[in-house]
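Narrative of activities, Objective 1.

The group set out to show that a structural description can be obtained from nothing but a protein's sequence at a throughput compatible with the screening campaign. Below is one input-output pair from the validation batch, recorded exactly as produced.
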Amino acid sequence: MVASASRKIKLSKNIKPFVSRVVRSGRVQKAFAEKIGRPVGACVKAGVKKGMSGAEIHKIASNCAKAKAGTKL
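Output recorded for this entry:
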């Protein structure tokens, strides 16, 4: 499978917009989604409740991500 590139508007260090090529369907992107993205997202979804503050949500997300730290893609 060949990873296809698409275009996306990004911001530079100087906050100037520019068009960049990004890969969205490549092998590494799919591995990230399977091994890290979906499990961490499910953990955050299970821990977040209505009415929580941003700091509380950030702490939950951080704790969920720590479990997947060092995962090899």
